């Protein structure tokens, strides 16, 4: 399962609390964007990036998706992702952030199994929902445009409007959905990567 579902990386983070462009920050010898690309390629051979106002030099096979709406938030990336999936004729599209480098390899498979006939599947891990790492039907592009036209920008708010289903992700010894927002978070991520390498 998974391989033909487009995966779009949300990479618009300005990284103000970590010294600049978040996708360009390095952890464990790679930029956060490169970590995200590696994960996305495990999920699908169709990978794109919603960069917001960020500028990147990328491999030719990875497409940059311009925001369709005037927003720096993830809702703009979601709209770009769903538009991308629609252009490809895909039934679903997955979004994922660039600052969450420990996502499970089976995430897309679990979301795809869980979505059924719903419009969106949102993972839940250790009691917390993670709408930025979710699977969406491309049929909801019109509904999303209506939602955005009202001035709303909440990703979870739109998931609720689209009547999402929750997909429970089994917990392990560390936070698979840990996202990096600060210099302190980067240090924690370095420790997790170090522990993972020790136990390979």
**Can you tell me the residue ranges where pLDDT is under 50 for at least 5 consecutive residues?**
none
Query: Main β-sheet: number of strands, strand sense, barrel status?
Result: 8 strands, mixed
Radius of gyration: 16 Å
Task: List the helices and strands in order.
Answer: EEEHEEHEHEEEHHEH
Classify the secondary structure makeup into a structural class.
alpha/beta
Span from first to last CA?
26 Å
Count of DSSP H/I helices: 6
Gross geometry: globular
Oligomer: single chain
Question: What percent of the residues sit in helical stretches (DSSP H or I)?
Answer: 25-40%
Describe the structure in your own words:
- This protein is of the alpha/beta class and 200 residues long.
Please give a handful of descriptors for the protein shown.
8-stranded mixed beta sheet; 6 helices; 34% helix
């Amino acid at each position: 399962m998974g391989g033909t579902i487009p995966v779009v990386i949300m990479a618009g983070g300005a990284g103000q609390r970590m010294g600049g462009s978040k996708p360009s920050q390095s952890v464990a010898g790679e930029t956060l964007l490169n970590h995200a690309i590696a994960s996305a390629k495990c999920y699908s051979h169709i990978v794109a990036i919603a960069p917001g106002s960020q500028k990147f030099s990328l491999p030719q096979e990875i497409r940059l998706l311009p925001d369709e709406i005037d927003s720096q938030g993830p809702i703009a990336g979601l709209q770009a992702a769903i538009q991308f999936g629609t252009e490809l004729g895909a039934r679903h599209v997955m979004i994922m952030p660039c600052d969450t480098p420990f996502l499970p390899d089976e995430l897309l498979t679990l979301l795809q199994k869980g979505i059924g006939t719903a419009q969106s599947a949102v993972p839940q891990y250790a009691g917390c929902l993670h709408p930025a790492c979710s699977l969406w039907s491309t049929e909801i592009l019109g509904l999303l445009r209506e939602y955005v036209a009202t001035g709303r920008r909440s990703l979870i708010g739109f998931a609720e409007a689209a009547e999402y289903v929750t997909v429970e992700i089994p917990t392990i010894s560390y936070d698979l959905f840990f996202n990096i927002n600060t210099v302190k978070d980067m240090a924690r991520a370095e420790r997790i990567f170090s522990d993972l390498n020790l136990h390979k």
